[in-house]
Amino acid sequence: METQQLDARELCSRKLWELINDRDGDISATELSEAVAELARRRRYLEELQELGKLGPDTH
CB under 8 Å to 39, separation ≥6 — which residues? Predict the structure, then answer.
C-alpha cells in the first residue's frame, strides 16, 4: 500500500497546527518537522510552538 507524503506548503496554517498537536501521532517525525518549519516560515503560531518546545529558544 502506498502512503501519501505530506506537503506542508499545500496546507493552511490551521491544518498544520492541528497536525502538530495530533496526540495520536499519525504523521512521521519528518512530516512533523516540515509542518513546524512551514509554520515558522509563515510566522504563524510561533509563541505556541516555542511553548511546546518545537522551536529553538532563539527563534523569534
Answer: 13, 16, 17, 20, 45, 46, 49
Apex CA 19: angle with CA 32 and CA 45, to 5°? Answer: 85
pLDDT in tens, the chain (60 residues): 445 688 999 999 999 999 888 877 778 889 989 998 998 888 888 888 888 888 766 545
Cell numbers representing residue 56 in the block: 529553538
Q: What is the CB neighbour count within 10 angstroms for residue 2?
A: 4
Cα–Cα distance list, 13 to 1, 3, 16, 27, 57 (Å): 29, 22, 5, 16, 21
